[in-house]
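Lab notes, practical 5.
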Amino acid sequence: MWSPKYNHPPYHHVCQIGDPVLRQKAALVDLEELKSEKIQKVIQCMRHVMLQYQAIGIAAPQIGIPLRIIMMEFSESSKKHISPEMCANREITTIPLKVFINPEMKVRNYSKILFPESCESIKGLSAAVPRYKEVSIKGYDATGAMTEWIATGWAARIVQHEMDHLDGCLYTDIMVSKSLQVDDWHRINASQGHFQMYYKQK
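Output from the prediction step:
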């Protein structure tokens, strides 16, 4: 009988809405196990999946592991695919690779900004989501050192999105409901409905 190579967590794919793991409150990582092979494997798998999906952020529950670990990165080469006007409008900046274990977030600016948001766990859809303009986040990095970061604008949105995953929340819980859309609706019409979507990069 054929058996998938990665048919148990940590998965090498992103779990989709409906998977109960995405609605759990993730558990704290035992700091005595932070440098263990088990936790390091989870971090390595998150990195692999994030790169494979060309994602900007990922949380451990998205690969089936209900632990409080998030990761973010947005390179200069990725930014080149976004227009300067959009970068300015949404305050999009590069993000060096950041890993936060047992992260804690504080809001620094309670003004909320409404922009479209998507998620690899809700493949093919997006919606307008209100997010705080500025937050700070602190936690342990992959080596066990304490790290802290102040994020504004678009980066703050990424932090809030990933932190929500740790509490079993998805953007659909706080979105402007009438803004929800299938991102490729125009391509579906142009192809007369003959359109295939993949849940993993080919």
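Observations recorded by the TA: The longest strand covers residues 95-118. The longest helix spans residues 37-52.
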